[in-house]
Amino acid sequence: MLMLCEQFAVGWICALEIEFLVACELLDEEYSRNQVAKIHPRDPNVYIFGRINTHKVVITCLARGRYGVNSAAVAAERMRNSFPALRFGLLVGIAGGAPNLKNDIRLGDVVVSSPTPQHGGVLQYDYGRTIQNQDFKEIGHLAAPPEIVLNALAYLSMQHKRKGHRLNATIQDMVARNSRLRQCQQSHTGLDVLYESLYVHSEENCECDKVDEVLTAGSHLISRKSRGADLEGPVIHYGLIASGNQLMKDATIRDKLSNKYDVLCFEMEAAGLMNSFPCAVIRGICDYSDSHKKDSWQPYAAAVAAAYAKELLEVIPGEDSLAGDPGPSTTAQDNGPLNVTSSHPPFTETSTEVLEYNDSGKVVRRTYSRTSTPPSAIHHSRRQSFDSRGGIQTAAQGEYFIEDFDEDFNALRTFVTEHLHVSSAAYLQHQSILRRLRQKTAALVTANRRQRQEIGDLLSSSFDDEQTGSDCRWYHVFTCCCKQRRRARLEHSSRSASISDLRWSEF
After folding, report:
1. Where does residue 268 fall: left (phi above 0), alpha (psi -120 to 50 degrees), or beta otherwise?
2. 3-state per-residue secondary structure call for 97-126
3. Topology adopted by domain 5-191+234-323+339-347
4. Rounded to 5 degrees, what are φ and ψ at 14?
5. What is the pLDDT, as a whole number, of residue 125?
6. pLDDT band with cut points at 50, 70 and 90 for residue 398
7. Which residues contact 266 (CB under 8 A, 6 or more apart)?
């Protein structure tokens, strides 16, 4: 049976081929392109369709060699317009970790965007203002993930603390089904070593994860305790993710931003999505955002991030279950789906989170607004959203529909031009008719005045005639009486004129 684009509820976006690969392999069921109705003809994205749990998922990847905030915003906008019923999105892939004394982040861990008191879960660290003799100041605010995702994150975090996660087990099952993905196993990664921030590796062919190199640079290594048997496998961290258009390979800047904002990792796409494509950002740590960056951990990091995304979709109820459930369930099975409801609509509206702070910098109020709200009600939040995006998502929308708008505008221009010609001709015709009417009216007024003058002259000459003079005088008296009575009625006078009131001297 042919499926419509409106039946897909989850949009999954990847930036790299390895991220795209593991996302497709973790589908419970994959649909062929012939099973899905034709998408928007001007959408160049390539999609994989499938199902995870009860969710119909559409997956896409950025074009080869096209990375960064702008490319992600364009791809997300195309997906959103081709699949208008998407409830939320997932941005899943790899990132560079930002370990410090507070956050023991290691290679292979998972970082999930989660709101903090000052931010919605993602910080665009390279967008702001630079003032002389002052530090660079980041500006703008990016929205938090949708409420239904935040509820599921809280539930999943609780379940992981109770019973642990199945990320490695999910990866093993995937490799068992497809042996070509052996590189995604943790056993195929290199050593996990963290160097001091000031120790810079200047060579392009960095081999910092090799045993010989580690032994040589032993004095520059940061010693870390073993996590123990109870923390076998990746650890999941929830907090702030830094996003920007530059690849972070500077440990000093990494530490500065990590200490200032409590950033957990660095990536290059999320800032282009959060305000127009409500989504959760899930990242597997493949390096430490320093000059010792290597790609050997990327397959495993991409796999653990995708495995976490799969677990997340397994606890979010699908639209079918929401429609059949009269309300949220008060009990839940340990491994069953979380029965939560959400008022978050499909992507026909854009939600924006607005935070209000007191003098001490603490959040005193958190509200959510949508672009359908009158502009006066969300002026400040709309301004903040535009500042944080830098026009990226607006440009993406214009780029996608410019051809459609061109065709519509040309048709409208032709229609208006034709009607302007007709209207101009009618206007000129009306002006000509009005001019002729004025000329005829002036001629009638002149003729009327001439006739009245002739009648007056005739009456004056008749007054001197003995035979007709008396009759003319009485006719003139009668005419004056009629005029005076008419004038009295117009002035709403209660007094009526009579023949006795007239004086012959008036004539």
Report:
1. alpha
2. ECCCCCCCCCCCCEEEECCCCCCCCEEECC
3. Rossmann fold (3.40.50)
4. -125, 160
5. 92
6. low
7. 95, 96, 98, 125, 241, 242, 243, 244, 248, 254, 289
Tens of pLDDT along 32-44? 998 998 888 889 9
Alpha carbon distance 345, 328 (integer Å): 17
The number of CA neighbours under 13 Å toward the Cβ of 94 is 30
3-state secondary structure of 251: helix
Backbone angles phi, psi at 460, to 5 degrees: -60, -40
Torsion of CA 321, 326, 330, 335, to 10 degrees: -10
pLDDT tens digits for range 89-116: 999 999 999 999 899 999 999 999 999 9
Average pLDDT over residues 460-474: 62
Is residue 13 a contact partner of residue 29, using CB atoms and an 8 Å limit? no
Q: Buried b / exposed e across 395-418, counting CB within 10 Å, b at 16+?
A: ebbeebeeeeeeeeeeeeeeeeee
CB 99 within 8 A of CB 239: no
Q: In 3D, which of 349, 351, 325 has the Cα closest to residue 336? A: 325
- What pLDDT does residue 53 have? 94
Domain extents for the chain? Answer: 5-191+234-323+339-347, 464-507
CB 17 within 8 A of CB 64: yes
pLDDT, one tens digit per residue, over 271-286 is 999 998 999 999 999 9
